[in-house]
Design goal:
- The protein has a 5-stranded mixed barrel with strand order 1-3-4-6-5.
- It contains 1 helix and 6 strands.
- The protein is mainly beta.
- The radius of gyration is 16 Å and the shape is globular.
């Protein structure tokens, strides 16, 4: 199952690599506005908090989504450069 949403920043994120380096939990608000607890069976991705959108693949187990794969859509570091170039051209 695929789940798409955004990080709920005011809820806890738990990653304890010394306890389990392949378990990271957080909360996601899906496209319907429903908040779900997520357990990612991988370590915490770099720049996770900066993501604009999160795409997960996994399965539901009770009220928790168990994710095996994750893709992050992050803001483009070139966005500001693109608008500066656009302004110069116009």
């Amino acid at each position: 199952v695929k789940l798409v949403g955004t990080l709920v920043k005011d809820k806890p994120m738990v990653f304890e690599p010394t306890v389990d380096p392949n378990k990271f939990s957080f909360f996601l608000e899906d496209q319907e506005g429903i908040e779900r607890e997520i357990i990612l069976l991988k370590g915490k991705p770099q720049d996770f908090e900066m993501s604009e959108s999160i795409v997960l693949q996994g399965r539901m187990k009770d009220d928790v989504f168990i994710a095996k794969d994750i893709q992050l859509k992050c803001p483009s570091k070139y966005k500001d450069e693109e608008s500066m170039i656009r302004d110069l051209v116009e």
